[in-house]
């Protein structure tokens, strides 16, 4: 890693040049919500002034650039009662601007899941290695809890990371590609004062968190509380809509299906992101459902995120962005569910009386 | 191993076993691919029917014959119905092989009890054929096979061979007898009365519907067979076979990568497994 500083106007020039030459996506205001607050999403940007550098959070995450909602795995062409299969992993180079530390962490988690292990995904790899990532730090929203999971800072998985130190950005340059390109712009060595400002900035971010979620020991809690009534309680609220998984930067479960062309001369095998909260997620032929109840399915989302899959993500895969909590129409969020779960056990262990009745 | 493109195969032969089940014999078209294709008993392939989709199917045939891949398929829905329409000569594709397998080497010098319920005979036929081909390596071999009705019993045409040539002690039972059925009637566990087991020296392989596992494995447990010497094959919905789509997950275990073959001790430690 190389550290440099750049003035804000020069930074804008640099970004402008970057996005003019490459297919780029950055945060843009797309709407205002019911309370008049701006709604941001990652959208295509063609110049620096289209980018909302001071954005708060995007509603959906940047994972869709690496894991599109729907993706073609292969194509079949039918002719004379026979067929041929065609598979491609080609992808256009992409620049992503303004990713938050937790969003970058989420991509690192996806790397771990999809590129490591027995069967790396060539589809994901093609996108990932052609994606140039510019990260930016930010002050947390009141409901962000990425610090609880240690994802409020990030040290890997980006090409360039920018920390706002007033009239300059403090740059962490993590690839020679980024350095080579930045050299053409007015970058300088950080002064002692710049270093101090960076430390102050980091402290400020760390101290600004208003939400924390206790995740230590959660894997065993989840095991012990497998049959807890809290799953029924939260499951009863859940609408099985799957929105939480769609907005989550680390949810990657999917469905596959063949979609024949309308002329029936070909067919496309497609992968589509799915959610374990959807009712048929674990249904097998003959209609047997291994997770028939809402609570069974909701539990599995928590199980997957906080217990960690042994085989392909030996870690908790939630980064604490609370996108799922903000998007949920039923007002279900990780903080409340986890607190509920812990409460149950902690009260049992610290007193001899019954745990408080859940309503 | 093919994880994306799949081996392109021709269906060389189709044997109608019952109204609902057919045995498909496939040959990998490319001769080089055919010569390198290997699998172990208990593993499965993702069988692709272009235009319809792909489904996990256990390999039902012999591991030593790379000229022919055998699948015993039940018509269950969209993809399997499309496969049932296929004629000899049709082209399909298979990805894999995926998953864990029965520890055939570890079982050497031991007695083996194979317990199959219904379509459970499909995944169980591969280890059975393995034993038949290496018969001298194994002690007493019992095959207990239960079906709902006599007409649903699969591979009956091979029973004589298994019994006489391969010296398999074969017992069958049905839940609902039909006219002409002279054999036993009842639940599969009743067949245990017909055989004697030396628990210290015995392995078990159990395949069938989830309800069967508990009864059969509990019985074997009471007989004194250690839980880590009983093997079951679990069924889950699968869309990738590679631990990526998460559809087959049980607890934090992937049925497609860590399974489908599990020893019974591991199964008991998996929540929601059976
Ligand atoms: C490891 C393993 C081995 C199997 N071996 C055999 C076998 O030897 N013979 C046999 O007849 N059947 C076997 N099955 C079951 C077989 O996969 C299902 O019957 C088949 O997927 C049904 O697909 P369908 O499209 O016809 O049914 P539909 O009900 O239309 O299924 C639609 C989709 O759901 C998925 N799906 C549905 N049911 C299952 C299921 N039980 N398991 C996995 N995915 C499912 C498939 O992706 C399928 O494309 C096995 C399943 C597993 C997991
Ligand atoms: S938790 Fe909320 S967002 Fe997720 S499926 Fe249930 S209702 Fe939908
Ligand atoms: S807070 Fe919710 S949306 Fe964000 S990473 Fe965790 S589970 Fe996913
Ligand atoms: S089948 Fe996709 S994870 Fe097992």
Description:
The complex is a heterodimer of chains A (359) and B (274). Chain A has 359 residues and is of the alpha+beta class. Chain A contains eleven helices and twelve strands. In chain A, a hairpin with a 2-residue loop joins β4 and β5. In chain A, α6 packs antiparallel against α9. The radius of gyration of chain A is 23 Å and the shape is globular. The mean pLDDT of chain A is 90. Chain B is α/β, with parallel strands linked by helices and 274 residues long. Helices cover 19% and strands 32% of the residues of chain B. Chain B has six helices and 15 strands. In chain B, the strands form three sheets. Chain B has a seven-stranded mixed sheet with strand order 10-9-8-7-11-12-15, sandwiched between helices. In chain B, β13 and β14 form a beta hairpin. The radius of gyration of chain B is 18 Å and the shape is globular. At the A-B interface, β4, β5, β11, β12 and α9 of A face β1, β13 and β14 of B. One iron/sulfur cluster binds next to α8 of chain A.
Which helices and strands occur, and which strands form pairs?
The complex is a heterodimer of chains A (359) and B (274).
Chain A: E1 2-7, H1 8-21, E2 24-32, E3 38-44, E4 70-79, E5 82-86, E6 94-99, H2 101-115, H3 122-129, E7 131-136, E8 160-164, E9 168-173, H4 176-182, E10 187-188, H5 192-207, H6 218-224, H7 230-237, H8 243-247, E11 254-260, E12 266-273, H9 294-307, H10 323-327, H11 334-350
Parallel strand pairs in A: 2-6, 6-7, 7-8
Antiparallel strand pairs in A: 1-9, 1-10, 2-3, 4-5, 4-12, 8-9, 11-12
Helix pairs in contact in A: 6-9, 7-9
Chain B: E1 2-16, E2 21-28, H1 31-36, E3 44-49, E4 53-58, E5 69-74, H2 78-85, E6 91-98, E7 111-117, H3 121-133, E8 141-147, H4 159-165, E9 169-174, E10 184-185, E11 202-207, H5 210-223, E12 230-233, E13 249-250, E14 253-254, E15 261-263, H6 264-268
Parallel strand pairs in B: 7-8, 7-11, 8-9, 9-10, 11-12
Antiparallel strand pairs in B: 1-2, 1-6, 2-5, 3-4, 3-6, 12-15, 13-14
The structure holds flavin-adenine dinucleotide, iron/sulfur cluster (2 copies) and FE2/S2 (inorganic) cluster.
One iron/sulfur cluster binds at residues 247-250, 305, 318-324, 334 of chain A.
